Amino acid sequence: MAGGDTGAPRVGGQASGDAFTKREKANEDYAIRMREKEKLMELKKKLQEQHEHLKKLEEHIDEISKSQGGEQK
What we know:
This protein is mainly α. 67% of the residues lie in helices and 0% in strands.
């Protein structure tokens, strides 16, 4: 295959890429950033849920301690 044919590697790599190559790279980078952002948002949501669960457990422990005459914070 000659340079420029479909599937042929570009001479000089991405450093000497044309506008199409640069646009393609930018689109790939954008897609990666969006996936990472989605993952981060999902992790933040899970963290918030865990925080709420821990708070409920702490309140439950306090209730049990009070009903048994235990020490309070």
